């Protein structure tokens, strides 16, 4: 459920390119809380998108900072922080008033297309809200955004025709822009 929430948030931000690494990192950080702090102990996940980096922090109530140790070939545990170090651009652990925070930053290769995806998702959410729609989660959310996209495009074509332009010409021009940027 936690991984799904992270992937959902990254999709809403328009940076699904970071989803695989984020899922792996979140799984490792959560597993460390369960193993070293205790199953069922409260912890908090914080995601923050800072330009070209995604910061993930897990806060828990233990004051014991993690330490990297060498794991033997036959050991089942002890490689998590090595994995974190390999995936992240930077990582660390800091004491907090309530315990500690273990954090890492993953590079986000959000190019022009990703910024366009983010803007489109925001526009579709606002469009659905303006029409009185609700924001479901998961696959229902995606289907709802797809329907909003179709309705928005149709409304834009009506607007284009109303101001005296050819809707087919506008669609052709949009397709040329899309293909040029996708290449």
Element layout with pairings:
Layout: H1 2-13, H2 19-36, E1 43-50, E2 53-60, H3 80-87, E3 90-95, E4 100-107, H4 112-130, H5 138-162, H6 167-182
Antiparallel strand pairs: 1-2, 2-4, 3-4
Helix pairs in contact: 1-2, 2-3, 4-5, 5-6
Descriptive labels:
single chain, 183 residues, 54% helix, elongated, Histidine kinase/HSP90-like ATPase domain-containing protein, Anti-sigma-factor_SerPK, HATPase_C_sf, kinase, HATPase_dom
Q: Can you offer a commentary on this structure?
A:
The protein has 183 residues and is of the alpha+beta class. It folds into two domains: 2-107, Heat Shock Protein 90 (2-Layer Sandwich), CATH 3.30.565; 112-182, no CATH class. Helices cover 54% and strands 16% of the residues. The chain is built from six helices and four strands; from the N terminus they run ααββαββααα. It has helices at residues 2-13, 19-36, 80-87, 112-130, 138-162, 167-182; strands at 43-50, 53-60, 90-95, 100-107. A four-stranded antiparallel beta sheet has the order 1-2-4-3, covered by helices on one side. The model has no long low-confidence stretch (mean pLDDT 79). Residues 3-102 form the Histidine kinase/HSP90-like ATPase domain. Keywords: Kinase, Serine/threonine-protein kinase, Transferase. This is Histidine kinase/HSP90-like ATPase domain-containing protein. Pfam families: HATPase_c_2.
């Amino acid at each position: 459920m936690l991984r799904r929430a992270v992937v959902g948030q990254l999709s809403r931000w328009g940076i699904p390119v970071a989803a695989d690494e984020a899922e792996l990192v979140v799984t490792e950080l959560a597993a460390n809380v369960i193993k070293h702090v205790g199953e069922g102990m409260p912890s908090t996940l914080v995601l923050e998108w800072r330009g070209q980096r995604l910061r993930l922090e897990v806060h828990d109530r233990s004051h014991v900072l993690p330490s990297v140790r060498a794991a033997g070939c036959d050991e089942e545990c002890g490689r998590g922080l090595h994995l974190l170090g390999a995936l992240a651009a930077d990582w660390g652990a800091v004491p907090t008033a309530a315990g500690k925070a273990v954090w890492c930053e993953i590079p986000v290769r959000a190019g022009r297309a990703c910024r366009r995806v983010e803007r489109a998702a925001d526009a579709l959410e606002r469009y659905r809200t303006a029409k009185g729609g609700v924001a479901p989660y998961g696959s229902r959310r995606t289907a709802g955004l797809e329907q909003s996209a179709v309705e928005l495009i149709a409304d834009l074509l009506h607007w284009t025709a109303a101001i005296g332009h050819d809707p087919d010409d506008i669609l052709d021009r949009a397709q040329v822009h899309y293909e040029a940027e996708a290449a």
